């Protein structure tokens, strides 16, 4: 039972088992939009995984990611079983070089993802904003960018993409995707204080000129009116010299970033939920041949294992293992109906903080570690709150430093501010300098970033190219 799924016989068998698994999933209460499955070669699957979408704007950074993924896969550290895109319908891609048992398991896994993406509140919210047809929209944007390359040249278009993709995580997920510009009303100054009795008498003397209220004149509104964390939106709408096609690129990257955010913010929940359901569906699928079931369960064990290769200690959390273990614990203690309520209401932040208990963390041997300068690795903390924060801190603010547009000066120069207090972490100054170079090229005026150094001292990073 190790044949790949690319012969007519194995494809027909997969279609048969998939239809039976879908019926079983509906019978067990899974609720999802229709799923379109497609078998693709491994190289195409890698491109989808690297680009994030089947058809997306071309950029050199995706090529770098592709090479990195190719090396990891060649070393046996990474393997792609499926890629699923939420929507109505959902789109799921399976590798035709994987075995029939593996793709049978993946079919069940995808149905768990589809159930999660339709019912989870965060997915539903962002799906409503970004639309359920992201694949078609992304393909249309890619075509427009290719047209821009023909009209304006590769170098100009790539400079805009460099800046937009460098800021890809810098959106404000608490704001709407489609939001209005700032109000255009001018700021009104505070009323002039009432003059004292001497001033009143002095002004009434014969020959004195009337006093003009210069302070009553209107003045330019502050832009932004408050720190603006949606940098892609701000640059697209307020960069003084951007052309229409350049703004379109920024807004395209921003919309795709909104689409991807729920996948990022619910990874542990989502992968765990899909893993729980693929295990249960396989277990209850009495129509599967015994040898196929055993091979599929072996693949399940490889996916949700807690340890690194050859049972070495894992220094990073496997979201499949953690999520699967947490859902099993929740369902055992609170029942499936409560688990479905949690699935609908939470994201990874609430899920981990509220349902990763001390007992389960100890059972899973979760801990916080530190790497010393000599290469030695030591356990530094196993307190449950420290474990929670170690898991969740990389997810804060889409995994990026919290940077705001703070002031657009009259001369068009831009001041950015690093909110290091709420950020809770420092900033890589060398990386910040590179990103500021990208921004400076398309802002075309001076751009400064105010942050702090390693010792807490104030630092200012300035774009050098204007």
Automatic annotation (TrEMBL):
Residues 10-388 form the SpoVR protein-like N-terminal domain. Transmembrane segments: none annotated. InterPro entries: Spore_V_R (IPR007390), SpoVR_N (IPR056174). Pfam families: SpoVR (PF04293). Residues 182-221 are annotated as: Disordered. PANTHER family: STAGE V SPORULATION PROTEIN R (PTHR30029). This is Stage V sporulation protein R. It comes from Noviherbaspirillum saxi.
């Amino acid at each position: 039972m190790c044949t790949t799924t690319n012969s007519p016989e194995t494809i027909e068998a997969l279609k048969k088992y998939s239809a039976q698994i879908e019926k079983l999933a509906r019978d067990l209460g899974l609720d999802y939009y229709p799923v379109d499955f497609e078998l693709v070669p491994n190289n195409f699957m890698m491109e989808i995984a690297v680009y994030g979408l089947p058809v997306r704007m071309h950029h050199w950074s995706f090529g770098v990611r592709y090479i990195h993924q190719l090396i990891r896969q060649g070393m046996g550290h990474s393997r792609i079983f499926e890629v699923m895109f939420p929507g109505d319908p959902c789109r799921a891609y399976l590798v035709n070089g994987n075995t029939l048992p593996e793709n049978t398991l993946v079919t069940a896994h995808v149905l768990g993802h589809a159930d999660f993406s339709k019912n989870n509140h965060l997915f539903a919210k962002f799906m409503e904003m970004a639309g359920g047809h992201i694949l078609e929209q992304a393909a249309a944007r890619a075509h427009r960018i290719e047209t821009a390359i023909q009209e304006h040249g590769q170098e100009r278009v790539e400079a805009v993409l460099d800046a937009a993709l460098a800021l890809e995580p810098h959106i404000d997920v608490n704001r709407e995707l489609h939001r209005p510009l700032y109000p255009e009303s001018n700021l009104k100054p505070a009323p002039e204080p009432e003059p004292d009795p001497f001033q009143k008498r002095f002004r009434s003397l014969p020959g004195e000129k009337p006093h003009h209220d210069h302070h009553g004149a209107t003045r330019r509104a502050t832009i932004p009116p408050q720190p603006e964390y949606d940098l892609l939106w701000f640059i697209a709408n307020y960069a003084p010299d951007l052309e229409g096609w350049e703004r379109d690129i920024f807004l395209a990257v921003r919309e795709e970033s909104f689409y991807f955010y729920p996948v990022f913010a619910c990874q542990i929940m989502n992968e765990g939920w899909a893993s729980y359901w693929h295990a249960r569906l396989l277990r209850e699928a009495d129509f599967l041949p015994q040898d196929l079931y055993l091979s599929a369960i072996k693949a399940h064990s490889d996916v949700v294992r807690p340890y690194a290769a050859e049972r070495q200690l894992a220094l990073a959390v496997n979201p499949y293992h953690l999520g699967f273990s947490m859902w099993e614990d929740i369902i055992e203690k609170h029942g499936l109906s409560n688990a479905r309520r949690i699935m609908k209401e939470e994201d990874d932040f609430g899920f981990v903080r509220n349902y990763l208990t001390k007992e389960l963390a100890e059972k899973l041997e979760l801990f916080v570690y530190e790497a010393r300068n000599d290469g030695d690795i030591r356990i530094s903390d196993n307190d449950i709150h420290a474990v929670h924060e170690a898991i969740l801190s990389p997810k804060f603010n889409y995994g990026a430093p919290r940077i705001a547009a703070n002031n657009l000066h009259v001369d068009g120069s831009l001041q950015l501010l690093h909110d290091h207090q709420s950020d809770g972490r420092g900033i890589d100054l060398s990386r910040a300098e590179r990103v500021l170079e990208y921004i400076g090229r398309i802002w075309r005026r001076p751009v400064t970033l105010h942050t702090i150094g390693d010792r807490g001292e104030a630092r200012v990073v300035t774009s050098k190219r204007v």
